[in-house]
Write a structure and sequence with these properties.
19% strand; binds zinc ion
Length: 144
Amino acid sequence: MSDTNNIDKIGQLLRQGGMSVTEKRVQILHLFFAQPGNALRHADIEQQLGSMDRVTIYRTLHTFLEKGLLHTIPNADGTAMYALCKDECHEGHHHDDHVHFLCSQCGVTICLDGIVVPQVKLPQGYAARQMEMVISGTCQTCNI
Ligand SMILES: [Zn+2]
Ligand SMILES: [Zn+2]
Ligand SMILES: [Zn+2]
């Protein structure tokens, strides 16, 4: 996908979510589109968009989470990671029940979209609201 196509797609996503297309929103989403499937930390975004302030980044990410454009991935050190959602996610309804993979060698976190989190049978009296699975190991690139 070329860069111009990405910009078009970003504008379309923002409008679909009822958001205005602002330069900052486009800049942040563009980072995710540049490496589809890869998750980013707040710090990664801050580093790549040096001119943007922390609060703006934080607020924009929060809006994208609410609107169903991004989902979070828990990280061992407690910092959230963000990744692009698929088209089936909408405002207030996420369907990101896939496994995430964390490479302990290069540090990349990837959405394994085709791998669904297996169902777990809970003891009586427990109700699950959310389940996440993060597998750590070495990624495709590091295994070559
Ligand atoms: Zn989602
Ligand atoms: Zn790796
Ligand atoms: Zn994901």
